[in-house]
Amino acid sequence: MDPLFGNAIPLPARKKGATPEEDASRPGRARTIHPPRRDRCALSQSIERVDALQWPLVFPTERPRRLRRSSAIRSLVRETSLAPSDFVLPLFFNEVLDEARPVSTMPGVSQLPVAAAADQARLARSLGLGGIILFGLPRTKDASGSSAYDPNGPVPRAVAAMKDAVPDLLVITDVCVDEYTDHGHCGILRPGPRGHLEVDNDATLEVLAKTAVVHAAAGADIVAPSDMMDGRVDALRRALDGTGHESTAILSYAVKYASSFYGPFREAADCAPKFGDRAGYQMDPANTREALREARLDEEEGADLLMVKPALPYLDVIAKVRAASPLPLGAYNVSGEYAMIKAASAAGMIDEKRAVLELLTSIRRAGADFILTYHAVDAARWLG
């Protein structure tokens, strides 16, 4: 049997009385020989593989490279696109500053004075960014994070200035208390078992709700609780609706992992925990099913948008949350991811522009509708 076409292989007919060796070269009628038994299985599998590839004959009819021949064709058939409107720019407003203070671990990022808010709003508008998310660094901190809901705090003042300068700019505010507590944790502390301090979930909800209402009153379009307390979305929704802010949306940090990639952020926001870590309320990086549970609960509590944080190490989680929920989904390209690209590009290891756009494309491809990223300004300029 011809292994390519399946037809019998012509072999000379054996002469009567001749040995196989004597008869091998003599012409005659076609007949089929079989391989030794030990080889039949292997040959049969080989023939099946060849037969499976014969019809339809894929190559040379199918040539995927035809759609890669030029930038015009590649652009036409591109499955995932990036635009400045996909990006949300994080900004840090420090109440005590009169001028920008660079963040040493995040080249190109600075803590800003509140007086710079209007200019930042105009910059975001000129670049066509999707929006801005604000973090505040207060003048004073205490155990309960009371500055978080001060109407004259850095975030409410920055929101008001931005809305005065660019009224239709999308302004999001981070709702958490780690920047405002003197211990750096994301909630109110209480004595736990054996005298250890722990975050009091339910007491923290009240502070978060007050903070969200103050931000909404200042003009925030969306409030974004990042604390990972149980029930925080429900608490914020009730507080907002009860104070006439039914139109203020909630972007929940639904899936926020206890990640090592937050390191540079903690300098930028001055919010490193003074003791312990945040593993008691942020998620275990090993868990995926828990992520889907958290997203479902926040959706049921009234979240309008969901977020996964960080982005790059959790593209699989982004894809699974995207498949499980119809809500708009964001992803946070966090400080550690940003710092890695900056460090590698500064060392000449990678091309910064190509690396950034590839990274952001991967986040969109995984299923994110929008991306919170410190690369927003550069990426918007590169995209034109």
Automatic annotation (TrEMBL):
Name of the protein in its database record: Delta-aminolevulinic acid dehydratase
Domain of life: Bacteria
Biological processes, Gene Ontology terms: heme biosynthetic process
Keywords from the UniProt entry: Heme biosynthesis, Lyase, Magnesium, Metal-binding, Porphyrin biosynthesis
Organism this protein belongs to: Polyangium jinanense
GO function terms (MF aspect): porphobilinogen synthase activity; zinc ion binding
Region feature Disordered, mapped onto this chain: 1-36
Gene3D superfamilies linked: Aldolase class I
Alphabetical list of InterPro entries matching this protein: ALAD, ALAD_AS, Aldolase_TIM
Family per similarity comment: Belongs to the ALAD family.
Enzyme class: lyase
Residues binding 5-aminolevulinate 2, per UniProt: 335, 374
